[in-house]
Structure prediction request, 208 residues.
Amino acid sequence: MNCIMCVSNMKDFIIIKEPEIAKLFADPVRREILHNLRHREMTCCQLAKALDKNLSSIAYHLNALEQAGLVKQSRTVVKGNLIEKFYQTTAKDFIISYTLSEGLVPGSEDIAKWSREVCRGAVKSLEAFGYVVSKEKEEIILNLIEKYASLEHMVFEGIISEQKKPIQAEGPSIRLLLNVLMSIRLHERADFQKLLAEISQELRPNSV
Prediction:
């Protein structure tokens, strides 16, 4: 068995700013492929077995992800007359730019629609935590949650863009650090403080 090609380690983050690439994340199979390849390199056959999909389907999705720069061949192993190609993601995490989630870029309307549905799902889930939102209040709270998500997304993207060198810590430590940095940045914004006050007012028990 010979390894005839190796590729350097993946990046920590990649910000997706092109609508056509962002739309690839809408497919659940592609999301599952990316999830698996973030954690370990795998062949097309291994992915097909893990996801219980046929080989041709996985090969099609892998090709689309590779063409988009989300996946790369990490190494090629020769076993007798067979050549096995291993794949991995090009980053540990992909961030879809807030400019796409707000529909600010031509062709990103579907992404903005999906983002709104995510926020609507959050509003509908408030009841699970004891908040009963009336129909009259639902749209108001939805708009506030959308603004919250947009500000948070924008600040997060800004922090990611400032990365100067590879991160050495593991996942939980990175998430903690990013949460701390985001909290600091958001706390410094007057518009975010005002937004929190508005959300707090709307979610008071006697106003829902």
Notes: Residues 123 and 179 are 22 Å apart (CA to CA). The chain has a mean pLDDT of 89. The radius of gyration is 21 Å.
